[in-house]
Amino acid sequence: MQYSGKNWLMLIGLSVIWGFSFIFMKYGLKTFSWDQVAALRISFSFVFTLPLFIYYFKHIKRSEIKYYFAVGFFGSGLPAFCFTFAQTHIDSGITGVLNSLTPVFTFVLGVFLFSLQFEWRKFWGIVVALTGALVLVAFDTSSTGNSNLLYALPLFVATMSYAMSANIVKKYLQSAHPLVLGAVGFMFIGIPAITYLFSTDFVSRTSIETFNISFGSIMALSFFGTVLASIGYYMLIQKTDPIFGSLVAYLIPVVAIIAGVLDGEQLKSWHFAGMGFILAGIYIINRSRK
């Protein structure tokens, strides 16, 4: 059975939301430090989902609490700090391509830790799509990846973290309501994030001229790029599988290219080549399902 059209639409929607999240982070960093942006993002997400937690609290099984905590930590908490730190040193192109490693780690962790069935066609589909993501930035003359490669390490941690979360949801929380997944996860990481935030000079930065645009950008990042996107992502991998859900990472660089064109950048031939590889890889993975 192949993935349905609704699943593909949801995948594309998530790609657009997360693709533009880098812009929100960029504007957030105009006023706040990388750790403050991450803590604010999680704090807002906690506030947005608190009513859901209260409403669905009675539906939470105690035996599954540890898995909810793991999903919150690996799916939202740790990556939030990794990405904002990396983006202070690495340009968006390199960040986007390293984010594309998520399906690779999802496949590897799924096979070795979560009894996911190994499929050669799915494996080669991942290779083809990853090649496309690499092509998108390989000829980017504005890239500073060579001199800041050390700062890419947090992105490897973030993509492995996303992969771990996706596999946990599929294996242990398959029947959980997506709203519960999001709300309970943020409950665990939200209070520590708020506590940490106010231990920094966050309050003193509210007087900076760029505060309003930064604050608004982080709110948008939290509501759209974290809460809504996370719930949609959990729903998607429950309906399909972790590998398909993680394909969103391959479409994010495409969204970044389109956003750049809208901002006045030129679309080069290698951009078309890279997007072609990505679409071909996704097609191979889709065909791999029986």
Secondary structure topology:
Blueprint lengths: L4 H24 L5 H23 L8 H23 L4 H8 L2 H12 L6 H19 L14 H20 L5 H20 L13 H29 L2 H5 L1 H15 L6 H19 L3
Helix pairs in contact: 1-9, 1-11, 2-3, 2-8, 2-9, 3-7, 3-8, 4-6, 4-11, 5-7, 6-11, 6-12, 8-9
Task: Describe what this molecule looks like in 3D.
The chain is mainly alpha-helical. It has one domain. Helix content is 75%, strand content 0%.
Q: How would you summarize what this structure contains?
A:
The chain is an all-alpha fold. The protein is 75% helix and 0% strand.
> How would you describe the oligomerization state of the chains in this entry?
single chain
SS content category: mainly alpha
The low-confidence runs, each spanning 5 or more residues with pLDDT under 50, are 142-147
Which band does the percent of strand residues land in?
under 5%
**Total domains, how many?**
1
| Largest sheet geometry | none
How does the overall form come out from the CA principal axes? Answer: globular
H/E series, N to C? HHHHHHHHHHHH
Give the N-terminus to C-terminus distance in angstroms: 5 Å
Radius of gyration: 18 Å
Number of helices: 12
What helical percentage do the residues reach? Answer: over 70%
Instruction: Look at the structure and give the mean pLDDT.
Output: 84
Q: Count the strands? A: 0
